[in-house]
Amino acid sequence: MFLSDVATAAKQVFILYILVLLGFICDRTKIYTEKAARLTNDLLFYIVTPAIIIQSFSSVEMSGENVRGMLMSFLGGTILHVVAIVICIPFWRRTDKNLSCIYKYAAIYGNVGYMALPLAEAELGAEGVFFCSGVLIPFNIFAFTHGIYLMSGESAKKTGFNPKWLILNPGVVSVLLGLPLFFFNIRLPSLISVPVNYVAGLNTPLAMIMFGTYLSKTNLKTMFLKKDTYLVAFLKLIALPAVILAVLKLIISASAPSANNTVMFAAKYGKDSAAASQVVAVASLLSIITMPLFIALSQI
What we know:
This protein has 300 residues and is an all-alpha fold. It has 15 helices and no strands.
């Protein structure tokens, strides 16, 4: 079982890195450069991410059991993110603010979609996917409130950030639109649902190709030499899952590596997107071992 989990995690990481390599090559050959990637970043932020959220709500059938499961998953995901935020408070206080926000974001927010869902399906079937999907709700709420606040920092004036964006942002608005679809069991007509699904399907390829363009600007020789990168990996891949393992059964979501949108948010709010790319890259590679390890521990 452990080897099977390793194989599943490794497969997901390798799929990601094929897309990252494509973005890397496109930037080096000037086919798709970092300048174009920044425009893609806005497309992901304002259009693609909301489509994913709406799709997730409209695809789950309303029932008493599913409502209870969704509420349990939502509560667990909320606890997961609160614990992660608290764990990271003591760290990077003396680090440059343009880097500390990236490290904290990467340590708090995990790839609970692309990495966690396939493992959940392999381990627990459709039920596991449903419960992990429920974690996406608090993930998006926290990422688009606390995450925006964390990343905006001193650049708030430059980026035009204001407190209203803690509520009036693509992630939270999409959740507010999606909740009625779930609770009233509303199925979107195909004229709407098909385009939404198409747009949602752009998320992983666009995000990873964009990630590759930023990675091509980094010093690959020093990527594995930064101690802060390993501190992020330790907090995200070992410390947080260890705490959650003791109190919850959300270990698959808790042990997921740093979220891809660490890079997206860093670019959006004028932070060091190259440093963000390095952190996500290293954490994703190390998760090939740490994710199945914690899944195996959770079954003991």
